[in-house]
Amino acid sequence: MIEFFKFPSAFGMRDASPFVLKLETYLRLAGIEYKTTEESDPRKAPKGKMPFIKDGDKTVADSSIIITYLKDKYGDPLGKGLSAEQRAIGHAVKTMLEERTYWVLVNDRWMNPKNQPIIRDTWFGMIPGFIRGFIFGKIIKDMKKGMEGHGIGKHSDEEVFEFGFSDIKAFENILGGKLYLLGDNPSEYDAFPYALLSNFMAKPFPNVISDYIGKSKTLSAYIARVEKKAFG
Fold first, then answer.
1. How confident is the model at residue 41 (pLDDT cuts 50, 70, 90)?
2. Nearest 5°: phi and psi at 131?
3. CATH code for the structural domain at 84-231
4. DSSP secondary structure letter of residue 16
5. Which of 74, 104, 109, 192 has its CA 20 to 30 A from that of 17?
6. What is the mean pLDDT of residues 122-134?
């Protein structure tokens, strides 16, 4: 059986990492059996990030690479009937949300001084106080450097949120009145939108985007629909 390595639950969520929740959502939607192992230290992961899986003697890391591996080995039940155009739309939406909108979430959680104590005490609470502050400070410094390299870190919070708004509204318009991103049935391309939107709605981190999502009947219904389909 596949062993799925993920973070411990936090903030009332199944997983506070959109990429971990993306993979678990895919596993559930695709009907692939797995067992869960919680790991709080991503440095123990093959690429230093969660999630990863072990399938027999095979270890695979990175949510997108894992999903490709699973489709190649176990089939692609969520891809039946999808046209090349639908797959292209799904890929484009997934890339937009993963490569830009995700960083809007990261910026608010990790760079916002109001949210940093929540992150520090939740994910690093097992570390003694003085050392915890030192380690957390270094992590914040490294993340800020990485975000500046990406480009998102060079903008003001207001500008970053505007990027997020444009992406979320684009997703909302593409979804329209459909049940799922590409039609009446869920596909692999619903896994990350659900995971990201759910993470924006994490209660300890209210912001202008979570407020927008909460007021959107289209997005709120979509979150609930994928949640029910994947997790019952």
1. confident
2. -65, -35
3. 1.20.1050
4. S
5. 74
6. 84
| CATH class assigned to 2-79 | alpha beta
113/43: higher pLDDT: 113
pLDDT of residue 3: 98
- Boundaries of CATH 3.40.30.10 in the chain? 2-79
Q: Would you tell me the crossing angle of helices 217-231 and 191-200 to the nearest 10 degrees? A: 120
Burial (Cβ within 10 Å: 0-12, 13-18, ≥19) of residue 74: middle
Structure tokens at 205: 């981190």
What is the rounded CA–CA span in Å between residue 210 and residue 201?
5
Give CA separation, 47 vs 15, 42, 54, 129, 132, in Å: 19, 8, 14, 28, 23
Sequence ranges of the chain with CATH classification 1.20.1050 = 84-231
pTM of the model: 0.95
Q: In what order do the strands lie in the sheet with 34-38?
A: 34-38, 2-6, 52-55, 58-61
The whole-number pLDDT of residue 162 equals 98
Percentage of the chain beyond pLDDT 70 is: 100
